[in-house]
Amino acid sequence: MRQNNQEKGKAGEDIAAQYLIDKGYIIIERNWRHRHLEVDLIAHKDQILHFIEVKTRTSLRFGYPEESISKAKMQFLKFASAAYQYQHPSWKYIQFDALSILLRGQKAIEIFMIADIYY
Predict the structure, then answer these.
(1) How far apart are alpha carbons 18 and 16 in whole angstroms?
(2) Is residue 84 scored above 70 in pLDDT?
């Protein structure tokens, strides 16, 4: 059965959240929204607040999932993080991360995390 993009994205975010939890992160928000901006996952670990973009694909036909993160998407992530920090000013240290997930059915066959990225 072929997944639509929403199902694929949800499956990828579920896998990403569990992956982060297994690595010691505490998930604070999933699909956090502010106006037209959205952050897939917001988590913290070791007093650092992480804004995480999750990209999921089921094949490499159009390249690796992380290759689809554009400069514009990173700019939106930056704006969203500023809004989140305004609402939650206690966080002093932030980091932008990307989690790339390659799926086969509902199972991740590859998870690749790019930590501390910024365009």
Answers:
(1) 5
(2) yes
